[in-house]
Design goal:
Layout lengths: L1 E9 L2 E7 H4 L5 H12 L9 E6 L6 E7 L4 E2 L3 H15 L3 E5 L4 E11 L2 E8 L21 E2 L8 E6 L3 E6 L2 H5 L2 H9 L11 E9 L2 E8 L3 E3 L3 H13 L9 E5 L2 E11 L2 E8 L2 E9 L9 E7 L3 H18 L2
Bound molecules: the ligand N[C@@H](CCC[C@H](N)C(=O)O)C(=O)O.
InterPro entries: DAP_epimerase_AS, DAP_epimerase_DapF
EC number: 5.1.1.7
Pathway: Amino-acid biosynthesis; L-lysine biosynthesis via DAP pathway; DL-2,6-diaminopimelate from LL-2,6-diaminopimelate: step 1/1
Amino acid sequence: MKIQFIKGHGSGNDFILIDEWTNGYTFTEENRRDLSLALCDRETGIGADGIVFVMESSHSDAKMRIFNSDGSEASMCGNGLRLHGRYVLDKLGKNEIVVETNKADLYVKRDGTIYEGVPAYRVEISPVLFNLSDLPMTIGKERLFNETVPALSDSIRFSAVAVPNPHLIAVGSREMIASNEQKRIAEMLNGENNITPDGVNVSFVHPIEKGTLYVRTFERGVGFTNACGTAMSASTLTTCQLGLNDYETPIDVFNNGGKVRCEVHQHEADRYSIDLIGNGTYMFEGTIQLDLSAPDQFTVHNQKTFEEQAAYEKLREEAESYLAVHVF
Ligand SMILES: N[C@@H](CCC[C@H](N)C(=O)O)C(=O)O
């Protein structure tokens, strides 16, 4: 069969976008898993952190499903939702839509630019859950906020939050960022283990100054990525809870693929939602020719490059120079 695709990214977190809805593709669950494994492979495939599927929704403007490069499905993806949202906003000719995701219906809006020539999209990150059973994470506690977990490290303090995909967040110094601890802990928690049996996204965060932070994430189902939207949202929330940043205020979040903005909304004492604002950039598009019974034997045709990546590159270079001074 022939599959139309767009390769794009949010903060360098790159995805293959496939519109099942408009093209009338009828994939099985096994097909989606196999396509993710075959197409996301960086050696033998197109290469991406995941596949974002655009689907019809019975009650919202569209539905998103996101599969990691290891074939597992995630309940949410912030950077992917911006890319998906941009595609659906353009398709429907709207400025604001609601997208059905695995566990919530979330708004996506056009929101000016994040840098000269780089349009921005604002997506809602919600629900925000703190019970460890929501991740799930088992350490004999109900919640984890800025505490050490002896099984992980004697000195690094972690907070756990599900948005609703699971995140473990450590806020600390440049030395913590430079250490090998994130890799060691994330690999342990994403392998066979009793603490996070479903795996977890692990972020190390350095607050640069009030209103600005750096986040690096080891993603469940992928490994280290340039950026993880839900992780940057959850990390910004943690810095607000720690009193390092303010609620209801735009906060610049630098990552290895560029920069986004996050705003944390406190609705009641313990109820939050987060807005994630950043790019949804197309890199190239094409047609994949494959047999679904052997998806790794695919070929790509009619590949066409989008020019818009050039403007994003300038944002990325500026972010890289900033991080070289303030973090690395
Ligand atoms: N990169 C995403 C998150 C993708 C899913 C994640 N790896 C998981 O398994 O929870 C983002 O931008 O939020």
